[in-house]
Amino acid sequence: MVNIAKNLESPQSEIDREFERVATMVSIVGIVGNVMLTVFKAVAGIIGHSSAMLSDAIHSASDVIASIIVIAGVKISRKEADEDHPYGHERYECVAALVLAIILLYTGLMIGIEAIRTIVGGSISGIRVPGRIALIAAGVSIVTKEAMYHYTVHYARRIRSESLRASAWDHRSDALSSIGALIGIAGARLGYPVLDPIASVVICLFIIRAAYSIFKGAIEQMVDKAVDEKTFAELKECIEKQDGVKGVDHLRTRVFGNKIYIDVDIAADGNLSLVEGHAIAERVHDAIEGDFASVKHIMVHVNPLEEER
């Protein structure tokens, strides 16, 4: 029986630095873009008398808070393991995503409640027709936020960041909500002013949907969800092709933030010496380390073949 376990601290430290650099850079770009959009849409909403555009401005303001949360979550999650956190701090990134989901949910509900009050409790005839500037602001927001979504999701996939992915989908939800605002404002200008607050309700639904998606993704990582089927199959294939491995008895994976933890039981010739069994375990470990950059911890257990077959 041979066990070998390693935490890949040296190679991972460089990856961690790159992770933090990229996540911070993308988040700062998001903050700058959202601040500019928030001011522009708020001014357009006020001047253009559009509740839908003001709701959209509030959504963009929540994005600024979201980006700040992402930066904080990433910095905390990159801290090295200590006595109180021997497996590291990766899950703090998931916590950041959960906080973001709660903020989005609250924002969406407040927007929706206010819009429903306007539709149900107010006088439809008293709703002012939105100005052209509100229509222009909606169009600018759609193009800008969709571009920010593609920019952010590209880097989220590159560094496998859950909080950055959440931020990307927040941009996408803002773009979709701006489409709702555009339709509502255009409809109001064509003689149906009630469509403006109705657009705010649509924006509310988009925000709540995004909040649910972010919440679900963060929870899946916090409860030790396994890697996807494709990655699992690739890991198993990598292990089985190593010299001396007669089979894979058990393979268990856990995802912590953007890191993967692996426990594997392999079968080897029972007549091998302890040194030879250890060498096989080392080969398996090194192969996984070389082929899967996201793996942080690997535990390899070697079973004698005759005990398992």
How many beta-strand segments? 4
Give the fraction of residues assigned to helices: 55-70%
CATH topology of the largest domain: Alpha-lytic protease prodomain-like
Tally of individual domains = 2
Q: What coarse outline follows from CA principal-axis ratios?
A: elongated
CATH superfamily of the largest domain: Cation efflux protein transmembrane domain
CATH class of the largest domain: Mainly Alpha
Give, in spatial order, the strands making up the sheet with the most strands: 1-4-3-2
Number of helices: 9
What profile does the largest beta sheet have?
Answer: 4 strands, mixed
Q: Which regions contain 5 or more consecutive residues with pLDDT less than 50?
A: 6-12
Let me know the average pLDDT.
80
Known CATH architecture of the largest domain? Up-down Bundle
Q: Order of helices and strands, N to C?
A: EHHHHHHHEEHEH
Radius of gyration (CA) equals 25 Å
